[in-house]
Amino acid sequence: MGVQCLFAPARAADEPTEADVTRQAILYDAAAPTGGNPKGDLNLVVFFDYNCPYCKRSEPDLLRLVKTDGKIRLVYKDWPILTPASIKAAQWALAAKYQGRYDDAHAAMMAIPGSKIPEDQMRRAIVTAGLDMDRLDADLQTHAGDITTLLRRNLAQADSLGLQGTPAYIVGEYRVTSALTYDKFKHVASDARARQAKP
C-alpha cells in the first residue's frame, strides 16, 4: 500500500478552470459529484474508471467506511483512462447528475463485473437503474462542454498528484495508490485524522 503526504497550500479561486490543480479545486470542485457527509471532518477523494476491476473490488469497502464512519465527505473524480468506453461511461454518469441520479448511474456501472465493458452493456445497466434516458441524453448534449471541462480537470489533477492508475485515493492529506480493504481504509482514515489534529 503506497501512502504519501501531499498538497501545496490552497489558493483562493472562483470557478475552477480546466487546468486547476489547486487543493481547493481537488477537494471542493462544485462540479464534482460528492457523497457521504457534506459537513464531514475528513475528505476522501476517489479517482476511478468504470472499467477498473480494482476500483470495483474496493468500492463496497469504500462505501462501507463512508457509511459506518458517518463523518467522511466523499468526492468522486471520474477519471476515464482505460478504454474509450470508459469515457462514455463517465460522460453518462456526469450527465445523470443533472437529474439527481449520479449515484444510481455510478452504482449501476460499478456493479458490472470485469473490465473492458462495452458501451451498450453500461447503457443497459443505467436503463435498468431506472434513469430517464431521454433526459440523460439531452443533458449530455446540453452540458457537453461542462462535462468535458470537468473530465479534463480531473485528468490534470491526477497528473499533478503523480497518479499512475486507478484506483487512487486522497484521504485527508494522504495519497493512496492501491486498492484497499475496509480495514485498510479505516487505518488510513484514522491516520489522516490524527495528522489533521496536529497543530
TrEMBL record:
Q: Which Gene3D superfamilies match?
A: Glutaredoxin
The reply on keyword Iron is no
Entry keywords, A to Z? Disulfide bond, Oxidoreductase, Redox-active center, Signal
Task: Classify the source by domain of life.
Answer: Bacteria
Pfam families, A to Z = Thioredoxin_4 (PF13462)
Q: Which residues form the Thioredoxin domain?
A: 7-194
Q: Does the keyword Disulfide bond apply?
A: yes
What family is this? Belongs to the thioredoxin family. DsbA subfamily.
Task: Provide the function of this protein.
Answer: May be required for disulfide bond formation in some proteins.
Family annotation (PANTHER family) = DISULFIDE BOND FORMATION PROTEIN D, GLUTATHIONE S-TRANSFERASE KAPPA
What this protein is called in its record is DsbA family protein
Organism from which the protein derives: Bradyrhizobium jicamae
